User: What shape does this take?
Amino acid sequence: MRTYRELFRTPQFGPFFATSAVQVAASTTSGLALGTLVYAATDSPLLAALSMFGSSLAQMIGATVLMSAADRLPPRAAMTGLALAFGLATAVLAVPGLPLPVVFAIILAEGVVAAVGGGVRYGLLNEVLPKDGYLLGRSVLNMCSGLMQIGGFALGGLLVATLSARGTLLIAAALYLTGAAVARFGLVRRAPRAAGRPSVAETWRINALLWSSGPRRRVYLALWVPNGLIVGCESLFVPYAPEQAGLLFAFAALGMLIGDTVAGRFFARQWRGRLATPLQLLLAVPYLFFAARPALPLAFALAVLASVGFSASLLFQERLMALVPDEFTGQALGLHSSGMLTMQGVAAALAGTVAQWTSPATAMTVMAAASIAVTLALTAAGRRAAGAVDEDGAGPGGCRDPHRTRQVSRRSAPGSGSA
Assistant: This one.
């Protein structure tokens, strides 16, 4: 599958796409409104960053205790119910005088529930599309996310300025409810991908299987850490430029849109593996220049350039899917999504802490330097592993057959005999 026409002609991709678009618009609008509300009340860069990205910190809780539900719940019912829950929670956040501990308790609960939602959503995408369509489909979803973020941050900034942060939160709640309606009446009913009841023990068993392979571990870390550290930079846009934060977010989303468009549609298969690391370095290098506190036009350009590098995640996701058994795709993608968002929350907290003691510009530079260091370390580890495989006779370039990797993983994982 190489064209957008083929993609949108695929049954069920249309309503799936519409559901995702509405929910991204809702989360973008609510995040900016909540960050603005908390920063105005506390004057704290740390609390503002945590209010926007703190729910990501709770993703790993859901990933470690609830993620087996991603393949064991009916997808349509799960997506509808989750959108309703987020709409209700966002409406509660708009209540005047809500104590700050209650605000962060709601944010924490949203993160736990969202962990399962990511697995359900991306597992369904892998089910709706043929195998050769996943990269293009995911790139289109990322492009949609970029467009919704551009519009959501720009419109959100306008709504916050004209309507108030609490009014903007109510609009975001209505968008979540719209997404629930699109999921309920647009998607067809499907059976769960896996049998049995979700449980903590099953979640741990499959997570152990997924983590048992060295190549999968490196792919997961590449998907989680370098990108997450750069989201830590983005979490400081509000304290860096309070009046222009919406535009900074919008320009960053524009860069992500450009990168995902090029990577999903135009990267030839033989180049994908070679471009992943350069793109991750591109993601971080522009933020090094924020140490000089560039003027806003230059800051906008740097945000666009850096966010092109987010397209590296598409290439790593394709690599992950080649290493995962089909019956575990929902949990594998959910673990990727939850780990990524958890790292974003950790990075937002770390960036906010550094900014609290130094300045937002200095903290952004520190996070960018850390991202570069992690990318280089993971690349070196992968090359060493490839060299070791070559010595064992695994073939040119140290590449094993993905199907053989799956079989080895099943045998070596704890309790995998019944998988």
